[in-house]
Amino acid sequence: MLDLTYDAPKPKIIAGAKHDWELVIGMEVHAQVSSKAKLFSGASTAFGAEPNSNVAFVDAAMPGMLPVINEFCVEQAVRTGLGLKAEINLTSAFDRKNYFYPDLPQGYQISQLYQPIVGEGEVLVELGEGVARKVRIERIHIEQDAGKSIHDMDPHMSFVDLNRTGVALMEIVSRPDIRSPEEAAAYIAKLRQILRYLGTCDGNMQNGNLRADVNVSICLPGAYEKYQETQDFSHLGTRCEIKNMNSMRFIQQAIEVEAKRQIAIVEAGGSVDQETRLYDPDKGETRSMRSKEEAHDYRYFPDPDLLPLEIEQAWVDEIGASLPELPDEKKARFIKDFGLTDYDASVLTAEVESAAYFEAVAEGRDGKMAANWVINELFGRLKKEDHDITQSPVSPAQLGGIIDLIAKGDISGKIAKDVFEIVYSEGGDPADIVEKKGMKQVTDTGAIEAAVDEVIAANPAQVEKAKQNPKLAGWFVGQVMKATGGKANPKAVNEIVSAKLGL
Amino acid sequence: MSIDTDTAARVAKLARIRVEEEQLPALAQEFSNILDFIEQLNEVDVEGVEPMVSVTPMRLKRREDGVTDGGMQEKILSNAPDAREGFFAVPKVVE
After folding, report:
1. Where are the domains of chain A?
2. Scanning every residue of chain B, which has its alpha carbon at the shortest distance from the alpha carbon of A92?
3. Which of the residues A50, A178, A480, B14 has the least number of beta carbons within 10 Å of its own beta carbon?
4. Distance (Å) from the C-alpha of residue A153 to the closest C-alpha of chain B?
5. Has keyword NADP (chain B) (predicted)?
């Protein structure tokens, strides 16, 4: 159980010419289900294939073709719902959303308007130590993705690729609980993290596998609290929807410029029109997608090709029993069991692979030390080469071996970094490397004493100075470390130098 | 409920069906008749009756998650009025 308590972050205030304004943001996140085949056909979902090669007759909307649902996609939606602590609706149904666009051959998208498969849930969005926003999820429904239109291959024609047509999406709809651009980005990052832990979506934003429509409105300070009390939207301003964003940076920029645009309109005595807008990152502005307005009459109706989707509670329970430990729980456990700081625990649990790697290293060892090595040495080194943890040439057993050598006193922390570098670039067993290359720390006081005697004998002038100024003992320690190739135990050297110099 | 010719024209446009001006009054009348019939059905008391979605007790058919289809670019494009380099080519549509 989580026994952490959080404070809600302060909403972002934007100063207008006349008043201060606050932001209210809600998001619709489209997450592509990580399935092999599409939602209603057996065509592949693989990215980057030859155009129109991953298309079945169902996807191309050939007459007489009927959709048959992919059970795996349903399972992933349920799994996602359970991961967001949401209610699962045992009966849901599919509706047709009608509009015409070249990349939608059916002339409608199959979606779930009236009875979505997942109901209300929540996501805890952390914004620093002890500060978090609880964002309520309104619903998750399953729907088909559209194809892709390419506009820059010919001056007069658009080219259409239906490979993505019919791929399963989960649309995750939040309540307007997000209050700043930073929170919006953190919300997406948290959702992405949970989806990746669950394995229901790969979260690849660059390929468009995770993208968001962002609803933005402005209100005067105090109005939002009235909305939260009453859930009455009339306390909030008119919202605009910024479509299809797949970059966290652009999402933040778009919210900022859209809020400023709305403030300028309202302060000039005008009113904001509810509409769909597009963010243009080159110009740094949002503009109206007027063509979408007319088509907004989607004339939803139940899809007569599909019976209601009935699932059994026992199946839902089975899926629930197979859920992995989720980020919040994992982080809390890392803090409690390994004594990690909040920050370190966040870094290590960001990706499920990193968390697993750390646990393998920390098993039976000092947790804090393991965290330091994984974060500072390994992550730092991987980052230099733009690699992620799955590409690490150092296994948890190897890194653990290095830590064991330090713990046993065989090598110093400084030498350990050299060993790490050798293991990273050449591989091998750390203990063997230390043995073969003679990197073991010298703790034998006899050998250290001999080295100290040599340095003292060779530098009588320095010895005289050191007797006047005890700080110069450090110089002797340095010389001895140099003479022993850095392998002498620094603590032993210090003690012996002091004793021999009579300090 | 009665549908005027403007509404009939809008519905036709949304459905991308071309209807000549002089045919609109007849179309509007047809729509009104259909809606009147639905109004009549609305008089039946169905309080507490579950909506019937199928005449036989059937469960929505499911499919396993396997790639069993696709790989036929040529067939998919064979009915297209214009296709280039594996794509459907359509008059330019830009947001």
Report:
1. 5-320, 321-436, 445-501
2. B60
3. A50
4. 10
5. no
